[in-house]
UniProtKB/TrEMBL annotation:
<keyword id="KW-0809">Transit peptide</keyword>
<protein>
    <submittedName>
        <fullName>YgfZ/GcvT domain-containing protein</fullName>
    </submittedName>
</protein>
<feature type="domain" description="GCVT N-terminal">
    <location>
        <begin position="38"/>
        <end position="245"/>
    </location>
</feature>
<dbReference type="InterPro" id="IPR045179">
    <property type="entry name" value="YgfZ/GcvT"/>
</dbReference>
<dbReference type="InterPro" id="IPR027266">
    <property type="entry name" value="TrmE/GcvT-like"/>
</dbReference>
<dbReference type="InterPro" id="IPR006222">
    <property type="entry name" value="GCVT_N"/>
</dbReference>
<feature type="region of interest" description="Disordered">
    <location>
        <begin position="350"/>
        <end position="372"/>
    </location>
</feature>
<dbReference type="Pfam" id="PF01571">
    <property type="entry name" value="GCV_T"/>
</dbReference>
<dbReference type="InterPro" id="IPR017703">
    <property type="entry name" value="YgfZ/GCV_T_CS"/>
</dbReference>
Length: 372
């Protein structure tokens, strides 16, 4: 489904440069004239990023948590009020259909996802209600801003609260409506504001006046890639399973797939890979040759010796690491392999390769039965 997102009013900010036409970020600022400086601000000081193009929805009803628990990958029945989690919708074969972040606060379960995915996710949720006391609906009247950097804590008073949430995934209601939640990525000091859309410019102006530096999606994406956090539909394809994309784990592990919960669609694949196998691909960080004549693009093949071994995801310039990318690479490809991404030479960052020296629980159980 093609989704048209209206340009953000923040694009009228002096120096704002919109994302490339046709890109997922065309409706918001890609940068404000100093892309690397904006990344530094988000890491060293404090920056505010307009992510108002994300699709926001809400679920009300007394069974909202227990109902969503049964149809998605996250453990939600014990989610406390004022807490958040990441979640996935999987198909019958365990392939990822949707990734969304959710927050339960004062009787409403809020969720947000990519703009292109929002309508389909909402349709799925509405079709799965049946007799449950749960009402999913779109919330286009709300928008997302992100505060990044160690200086964010000093801006609590600007938002009308005593302090920003200290615990990852915790959320605090804002007096002007909406809430702020702490996230584990793309930096160690990351906060999402889900606010009434009518207050978007008011919040933006107040935060920047108080010292938050405007940063575009270029900064957010560069830091996200460096943090090895995938973006649904960009770093994933129609074959991606959760283990490949590093989404395994409950809220305590900052994951989106809880391994100790009841049955849900796609669970068989998750359990089989966890207990008996390994994912066919891994999401890895690639360093790209910046001198190449043409920059590779999302969806390009990653090859080794002329043979396709992976798919390229987000490609972005990082203020310290240079040109980097996320890619789904066959698990059998060693870290030192010479790769080509599109037409650029590429190398796997060895620190991004998952450790695979452990024995899966299912294999260990079989070995015990066989006396090994």
């Amino acid at each position: 489904m093609s989704v048209v997102v209206a340009p953000s009013p923040v694009l009228h900010t002096p120096g704002a440069v919109a994302g490339a036409e046709g890109s997922p970020d065309a409706a918001v600022a890609w940068h404000y004239g100093d892309p690397f400086g904006e990344q530094k601000a988000a890491v060293q000081r404090v920056a505010v990023v307009d992510r108002s193009h994300r699709s926001v929805g809400r679920i009300t009803g007394g069974e909202r948590l227990s109902w969503l628990h049964t149809i998605s990958s996250q453990h939600l029945t014990a989610l406390p009020d004022g807490h958040s989690a990441e979640n996935l919708d999987l198909d019958l074969n365990g392939r990822v259909q949707h990734h969304f972040v959710l927050t339960d606060l004062d009787g409403t379960l809020w969720f947000d996802t990519e703009a292109e995915r929002g309508p389909d996710l909402l349709t799925f949720l509405q079709r799965m209600v049946f007799w449950a006391d749960a009402k999913p609906e779109a919330a286009p009247d709300h928008a997302v801003l992100s505060l990044l950097g160690p200086g964010a804590a000093a801006l609590a008073s600007v938002l009308g609260i005593a302090a920003l949430p200290g615990e990852v995934y915790a959320a605090t209601a804002l007096p002007a409506g909406g809430f702020v939640r702490r996230m584990p990525w793309p930096t160690a000091d990351s906060y999402d504001l889900i606010i009434p859309r009518e207050t978007l410019i008011t919040h933006w102006s107040a935060l920047t006046a108080a010292g938050a530096e405007p940063a575009g999606m270029w900064a957010f994406e560069a830091l996200r890639v460096a943090a090895l956090r995938p973006r649904i539909g960009v770093d994933t394809d129609d074959r991606t399973i959760p283990h490949e994309a590093r989404w395994i784990g409950g809220p305590a592990e900052f994951g989106a797939v809880h391994l100790n919960k009841g049955c849900y669609r796609g669970q068989e694949t998750v359990a089989r890979v966890h207990n008996l196998g390994k994912p066919p691909r891994n999401l890895l960080l690639l360093h790209l040759d910046g001198s190449a004549d043409e920059r590779p693009a999302t969806g390009d093949d990653v090859t080794a010796g002329g043979r396709a071994v992976g798919r390229l995801g987000t490609v972005v310039d990082h203020f310290e690491l240079g040109p980097i990318a996320l890619a789904l690479i066959k698990r059998s490809v060693p870290a030192g392999t010479e790769l080509v991404a599109g037409s650029a030479a590429a190398a796997i960052d060895p620190d991004s390769v998952p450790a695979e020296d452990g024995v899966q629980p299912g294999r260990a159980a079989v070995d015990r039965l066989r006396g090994r």
